[in-house]
């Protein structure tokens, strides 16, 4: 598999709560690849948390940084990359990913997403009066775009380890 992949990256896309980071880490361990989390890389580069970046510079600034960070991660050695939920919405990023890796959409239903994001409140986009309605709107907007990923894997309420196995079998 690794020989077939060559210098390419495995890039996980999908909504907040789909399990991109947890599943990505497990794929990396199973394949002996490095793992990178784009959100964490942006936070490290900016020396600020994502909510702080959104609050002080706005979303457009965050998206600029996100595009740059993903391009840099794709240029490096082969790795598994977990992207933030909005990253794949950028056409420039989709092209960069298509050139440098295989994209995997971790698709999940609304209750699964909501159960997972409830445990982490660091998502500025969900700081709304009705996070579930916001998540539904994001599903409507984004699912047609995520569907352009090379592979789609259903991320159910099962162990992340099993989802990781399904991704490896699917790529
Ligand atoms: C975002 C998802 C977040 C983070 C930022 C914006 C989005 O990443 O990049 O809060 O637009 O969906 P996760 O999907 O890892 O939560």
TrEMBL record:
Q: What is its EC number?
A: 2.7.1.71
- A GO biological process held by the record: amino acid biosynthetic process
Q: Which cofactor does it need?
A: Mg(2+)
Residues annotated to bind Mg(2+): 21
| Catalytic reactions on record | shikimate + ATP = 3-phosphoshikimate + ADP + H(+)
Name where it mostly resides: cytoplasm
Under Pfam families, the record lists:
SKI (PF01202)
Xref: Gene3D superfamilies = P-loop containing nucleotide triphosphate hydrolases
Listed under subunit, the entry gives:
Monomer.
* Protein's job: Catalyzes the specific phosphorylation of the 3-hydroxyl group of shikimic acid using ATP as a cosubstrate.
Under what name is this protein listed? Shikimate kinase
Its source organism is Prosthecomicrobium pneumaticum
Its gene is aroK
């Amino acid at each position: 598999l690794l020989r077939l992949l060559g210098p390419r990256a495995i890039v996980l896309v999908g909504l907040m709560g789909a399990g991109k980071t947890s599943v990505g880490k497990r794929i990396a361990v199973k394949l002996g690849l490095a793992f990178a989390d784009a959100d964490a890389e942006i936070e490290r580069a900016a020396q600020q948390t994502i909510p702080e970046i959104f609050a002080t510079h706005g979303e457009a600034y965050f998206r600029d940084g996100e595009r740059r960070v993903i391009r840099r991660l794709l240029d490096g050695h082969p790795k598994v990359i977990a992207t933030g939920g909005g990253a794949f919405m950028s056409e420039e990023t989709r092209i960069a990913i298509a050139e440098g890796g295989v994209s995997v959409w971790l698709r999940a239903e609304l209750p699964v997403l909501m159960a997972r994001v409830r445990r982490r409140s660091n998502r500025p986009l969900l700081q709304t009066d009705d996070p579930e309605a916001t998540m539904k709107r994001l599903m409507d907007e984004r699912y047609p775009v995520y569907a352009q990923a090379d592979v789609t894997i259903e991320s159910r309420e099962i162990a992340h380890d099993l989802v990781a196995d399904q991704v490896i079998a699917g790529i």
